[in-house]
């Protein structure tokens, strides 16, 4: 087994640490070199030395240590003397050893010298040994000055290698090339395909892969081959990782999960080594599934942004991944599932059949998909009986699965703050406002003049949308500040539509310009409140001219660089660039004048809506109908759909702080 197991309690076995070997060897060498020879010396008394040892004439020298101990070193001839035969009877002569043969304590150095002088007086013909004096520290004290630098270097080396090893995926440097993937079995993951809603087509694709692993004969009997890879493509929050979790919960085969960034390392060759280790372990457990999340971290197209003379570790990792997926010695039984929200930056070699045979698009859900997602996330919530989840789905166009999960959680929090026992439609409304507009800024003080500008600005949006044929149906308008910069906003319910013509886009631009035009008409001046509106219409205008070919002068051309082929160069001349700028300005000016004409014509309706906004702060579609009549272009189907939002909900006069 490698480091891929995901059960730390069962697989947490102490690994062999090479640092202890290094430390042991270093300690043995130091002890051998620097510890003094510990040959046993016989301890005698002072009287025994002067009466029995000194008179023999075999003493070579006497060393006085720290003025309290005397060490006696014998000559080589002592081994043959009768007085020392018992000492050297069963062992070789030790006089050549640096260790003393005898030791005895002394009271003071003066006392020893006095005794020696007395002995010389008694035996003047005896050749007395030389006497040396020395101060000697203990073994520990003598080793500290020498060992301290080595100890500091060893500690520094240990912690540096440990940090490097931890960054490389293991406790030591020796595991840096090991894969960091986690291994899951059916007991580790509780998510199943029943928990995935709104992604029916994607579920069918991946369920077929799981079924292929469970029942391979069903497909191989017809000559079919198991796909080598499936690439999940979609915006953030749409459920790519959730589908992978469901596969881990459904599959009866080992499931390896790893992120693309786990392969990236500052050391050359580490990423490729981890890829090899991952596939080596996967082959041992084949058939199995490998899930690589955010594969664009290592799968970017090669050759872009290369540093001259440098070694691109990411490209080495990608090359190894390409070889492992469909190389010369590729083995069967391993399926790669990858997810990314940046398919445009992936290398073409990674996307070809034989590597990622299937590319599964996971887009934001439609109304039916959102309703299913609401049902999944409200299973564990105490919602009010009779709450129509379809209306919530219609009210949240463009929401991904993660956004809907956030809405459900925020609704539960709103209900809890208000002390409710059930979550009502009002709480979901507050949650949607919270997700769309941000936190309600109840403490933000707005002076009356600014509040009037905001009211007519938002009323301009609402009136333009009300009397434009292709504008989205209005849901509500508010002048309650939310978020960082939003002083008010108008909320619409877009249709589930994928294609737009020029007339529809022009109406959308006019509706977006309604706030700026209303300010000019009513106050004869403009403010900075239209910044976001101007950004949107500028983007729409340039899209109509340069991407969608909706301008006669520029023609049916598209300069949308989806694959970054042009890098930093424009794919058109300076003359064409000037024409594009001119046509965009003409288009925006035309939309501005059209909006101005409409609001001048509907000035009475504009004032009614703005004044009511100043009074109530929040207006719903029913309130606008009561003020200025029914929307002239509303179809019966659209009216029926929008009437479902009129629950008579109004904000509390003293709302609970969020």
Summary?
The protein has 658 residues and is an alpha/beta fold.
What features would you describe in this structure?
It contains 23 helices and 14 strands. Helix 9 links the parallel strand 8 and strand 9. With 658 residues, it is of the alpha/beta class. Helix 9 packs parallel to helix 11, helix 13 crosses helix 15 and helix 19 packs across helix 20. The two termini are 50 Å apart. The strands form three sheets. The protein has a six-stranded mixed sheet with strand order 6-8-9-10-7-11. A five-stranded mixed sheet has the order 1-4-3-2-5, covered by helices on one side. A three-stranded antiparallel sheet has the order 13-12-14. The chain is elongated.
Mean pLDDT: 78
Uncertain regions spanning at least 5 consecutive residues: 1-15, 167-173, 647-658
How much helix is in the residues? Answer: 40-55%
Coarse shape: elongated
- Taking the alpha carbons of the first and last residues, their distance comes to 50 Å
Spatial strand order of the main sheet: 6-8-9-10-7-11
| Backbone structural class | alpha/beta
Work out the radius of gyration. 43 Å
How many strand elements? Answer: 14
Q: How many individual helices?
A: 23
The main sheet comes to: 6 strands, mixed
Strand percentage lies at 5-15%
